[in-house]
Amino acid sequence: MTIESLVSVLSRLPGVGKRSAERLAYFLLSNKDEARLVSSVISEVIDSVRFCSLCGNFTQVDPCSICSDLSRDNTVLCVVEDPRDMTAIEGTGLFKGLYHILMGSINPLEGIGPDKLRIAELQQRVSCGSFTEVLLATNPTVDGEATFLYTSDLLKNSKLRISRLATGIPMGASLEFTDSLTLKKALEQKLYL
Amino acid sequence: MTIESLVSVLSRLPGVGKRSAERLAYFLLSNKDEARLVSSVISEVIDSVRFCSLCGNFTQVDPCSICSDLSRDNTVLCVVEDPRDMTAIEGTGLFKGLYHILMGSINPLEGIGPDKLRIAELQQRVSCGSFTEVLLATNPTVDGEATFLYTSDLLKNSKLRISRLATGIPMGASLEFTDSLTLKKALEQKLYL
Fold first, then answer.
1. Taking CB atoms and an 8 Å limit, are A1 and B41 in contact across chains?
2. pLDDT per residue over B85-126, tens digit each?
């Protein structure tokens, strides 16, 4: 194993280009204790982490801490694309229901159809669960919209109430620099006082 | 070991903030084979790499491939702060001499004095070596200048020719956006045709 192979492995990580990989490699070579820690933490965590059989999130105990939390509202299910989306929603402290992680979004160009996502598990889960509402919290992107349309269509014949996140101008933004699509959405969904 | 501990270890790497660490952690969790490869390459390279006893660069064979390359010019010694500076100079293909890496620059505020750098090794190396010229290629920063002044002062009584890299306007830049200190240097060191 050469220093070049370390740089090349590091540069395959997301958001790490050749220069950052070199920087990381030199940092690791100069801080061997830190490097050994990084190496061992990666391999230990990778070996202990699996998927929650209910929501699909990464977890070390199955079901995960959220799915097994009896104080949470088990009538609302929030469907997200990615574990990080779940973390973002948890960060608000406003949502007290349960989650279902699709592990991606529909993207025909990259060959990701509904069968590659955890959509069958979603159907299974809502059909025999305690849920009365499904909040489809996909991203407001092309892939996210496709995923939203597909899942909302799948669930429309059930007795579940389907909801989605509001789209509009983000807090702290200025109208001047808001893109016209976002502004259009904000106008369409204007709130009467 | 929890996912949080993986994020916290990754966020201590240079240039990796909390968000990038989360992104890296999720990437590693989703790509376990890649994660195992990263972990094993780090630990293997760290264990096999040491310092070249001559130039001080990271190497797996001592002396390193540059120091042991008999086709290189052993009369010119290029002194740099960091292995990456050496890589940058090697990248030009113009320098055919040998290198000496100081492994840092003088920074009294951070407690890095000349004794923390490979300056004694430099003195030792030029005093009994074949060198006739020392190119002090420190960075044009406050620390680099301090290191330059200190080393050039140390070597001034030797019979060595001391040189340094030219400072001036970088290629591709425009005068309008060049800082005044750089412009001043370019004027001071103007070339007559």
1. yes
2. 998 999 999 999 999 999 999 999 999 999 999 999 999 999
Does the interface predicted TM-score (ipTM) exceed 0.85?
no
Q: Per-residue pLDDT tens for A162-185?
A: 999 988 888 888 888 888 888 888
Nearest by CB to residue A45, choosing from B1, B34, B46, is B1
Give A12→chain B minimum CA distance, Å.
9
* A6 and B CB contact within 8 Å: yes
User: Quick check: B61 contacting A, CB < 8 Å?
Assistant: no
**The three-state (H, E, C) secondary structure of chain B, written as one string:** CCHHHHHHHHCCCCCCCHHHHHHHHHHHHHCHHHHHHHHHHHHHHHHHCEECCCCCCEECCCCCCCCCCCCCCCCEEEEECCHHHHHHHHHHCCCCCEEEECCCCCEHHHCECHHHCCHHHHHHHHHCCCCCEEEECCCCCHHHHHHHHHHHHHHCCCCCEEEECCCCCCCCCCHHHCCHHHHHHHHHCCCCC
Least CB–CB distance from B37: residue in A9, A29, A40: A9
Q: Shortest CB distance from B44 goes to which of A1, A37, A46?
A: A1
